[in-house]
Each structure stands twice: as C-alpha cells, then as structure tokens.
C-alpha cells in the first residue's frame, strides 16, 4: 500500500515559494484521477486476466482522464514486491489465490501522485493488506513538517508488527518533485537513527510493504529490467533507430518501457528497438522477496 502525501496547507496557500496556483491545480487534478482509478483497479484485476491488459488499460484510462502515466504501471504478484511491468507480448496472467499489487502514478504537467492498490484472492493473506493499510493511515497522521522520517518508519514498523507481520526494510517511500519520482529523501518502513526531517513544501509517497513474520523482510533485484530512463543516444545510425530515439527524447520526463516503444513503433524491427535501448540506463528491475526461515 502507498499514497502520495501533499501537505494540506499547500492546498490553501498561494505562496510562490511553495507551489503556485497552477501547480496546486495540477496536483488536485492528478489526485482526482488517481482516486477514480483506485476504484477501477479491483474491477480490472481478476484471476486469468493478463497483466499486459491491466497495464495497457490503466495507462489508457489515465490519458483519457487528462493525465499521463508518471511511470509504467507495475503488477506485482505474490513474492514480486514491486517494479514489474509487462514487456511486449507478456503472457503473465493473474493467478488464482494470489496477492496482486497494482502500482501506478499519474502526472499532470509534471506534478505526480503515486499510489497502489492491493487485490487479495486468498483469505489467509488478507492481514498483509490490512496491516499495510493501517500503517499507511497511521503514517499519514504522523506526517508533519519537522517530524523525523525515521519516526515515520517507527510508526509503520510498530503498526505492521502488531499484526504479527514484518515490514520490508529495504523498500521505502520517497520524496517527489516535479517530473521526478524519486527525489532523494526516503521514507523508511522501519525505525532508525536517521535524523532527516520532513520540511514544509515537500511532497512524499509513503509506501508500507508487509511480509510474513518468518520471511527475511528484505527484497533482492530480479534479473530482467523493463523500466528505463533516457541518458543519451548512442549508436543510432539507421533511420528506424533515429525515429525511436526522437520519440524517446520527446518523452524523457517519465520512465519508459519497451512496451511503450513497441506500441508506438509496431512497424520497426525488434533489432531497431533493442539498438536504441543502449541509449538508456535501467531505472529498476523487479524486486523479489528474499527467502526467510
């Protein structure tokens, strides 16, 4: 579970040092789109439904409502905690009896709201969702300028442990800036000695991740990457490659994915698209829960 926290005072201020009225309007619109789509996700996610369909349909809904994807829609099933988005031709489907995490964000003029919806198809796993939901609510109530981010981590950890579960310690929430999903500061899911404080005018995504008590409480990176950011073009010599590079450069504000290139350039060969990816640097790979005791 996670959500974007905008200091409520920002929605009333016109102080340009914080956000101007146009920026606040963009935040509001982005948040309204996210709130609407959160209601749609449980209807879209059912056993047997392809993950690729969920990604494509949810991203289309964002655009239809006047926003853009802040990053590719992520579909995490069971031990895949985060950062998996369907590549072109993906055959993954939602299995019966699973825990499916749908992670998505919307940006309007670069102002991002970041959220996720967990859909549970196994009764015995429901406490994982309940613990994360309560931890998110408690963290939101504790979130104020001047509060140490480690204190937010302590609130998340103590809430999750109350359910006899464990937080994932090496996945965190994060500060958000315009067109920037991860803007430096992290919101931990465990307590600690970090003295970094929340400052007025900042925007954060709080992301409690829960796992079973006997699990390791950590994740490791998977072997494949499907989300990239543009660094610089290299080796683009063919006309096809140059077309793809131009398309990528026009969309450098948000992380991209091979599926986006495939959908927009269906007439190009896979070799042309792969050749262009050398101008990218991988943002993230899917994160997989480590085995516990």
In words, what does this structure look like?
By secondary structure, this protein is an alpha+beta fold. The chain folds into two domains: 3-215, Creatine Amidinohydrolase (Alpha-Beta Complex), CATH 3.90.230.10; 227-287. The protein contains seven helices and 14 strands. The strands form five sheets. Strands 1-9-7-8 form a four-stranded antiparallel sheet. Strands 2-4-5 form a three-stranded antiparallel sheet. Helix 5 packs across helix 7. The protein starts with a strand and ends with a strand. 40% of the residues are buried.
CATH class category of the largest domain: Alpha Beta
Give, in spatial order, the strands making up the sheet with the most strands: 1-9-7-8
The end-to-end span amounts to 25 Å
Mean pLDDT: 83
Radius of gyration: 19 Å
CATH fold topology of the largest domain: Creatine Amidinohydrolase
The low-confidence runs, each spanning 5 or more residues with pLDDT under 50, are 3-17, 267-281
Major sheet characteristics:
4 strands, antiparallel
The CATH H-level superfamily of the largest domain is Creatinase/methionine aminopeptidase superfamily
Secondary-structure arrangement, i.e. CATH architecture of the largest domain:
Alpha-Beta Complex
Instruction: Output the number of helix runs.
Output: 7
* Tally of individual domains: 2
Coarse shape: globular
State the helical fraction: 25-40%
């Amino acid at each position: 579970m996670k959500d974007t926290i905008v200091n409520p005072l920002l929605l009333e201020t016109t102080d340009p040092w914080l956000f101007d009225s146009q920026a606040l309007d963009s935040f509001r619109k982005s948040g309204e789109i996210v709130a609407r789509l959160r209601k749609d996700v449980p209807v879209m996610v059912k056993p047997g439904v392809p993950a690729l369909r969920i990604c494509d349909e949810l991203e289309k809904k964002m655009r239809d409502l006047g926003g853009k994807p802040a990053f590719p829609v992520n579909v995490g099933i069971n031990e895949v905690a985060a950062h998996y988005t369907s590549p072109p031709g993906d055959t993954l489907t939602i299995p019966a009896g699973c825990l499916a995490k749908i992670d998505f964000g919307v940006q309007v003029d670069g102002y991002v709201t970041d959220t996720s919806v967990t859909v549970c198809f196994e009764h015995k796993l429901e406490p994982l969702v309940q613990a994360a939901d309560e931890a998110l609510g408690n963290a939101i109530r504790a979130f104020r300028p001047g509060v140490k981010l480690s204190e937010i981590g302590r609130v998340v950890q103590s809430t999750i442990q109350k359910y006899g579960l464990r937080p994932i310690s090496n996945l965190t929430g994060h500060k958000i800036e315009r067109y920037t999903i991860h803007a430096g500061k992290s919101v931990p899911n465990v307590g600690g000695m970090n003295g970094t404080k929340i400052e007025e005018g900042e925007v954060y995504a709080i992301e409690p991740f829960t796992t079973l008590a006997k699990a390791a409480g950590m994740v490791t990176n998977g072997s494949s990457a499907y989300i990239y950011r543009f660094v610089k073009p290299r080796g683009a010599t063919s006309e096809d490659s140059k077309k793809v590079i131009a398309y990528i450069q026009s969309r450098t504000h948000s992380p991209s994915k091979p599926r986006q290139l495939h959908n927009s350039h269906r007439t190009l060969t896979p070799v042309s698209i792969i050749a262009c990816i050398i101008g990218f640097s991988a943002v993230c790979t899917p994160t997989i829960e480590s085995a516990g005791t």
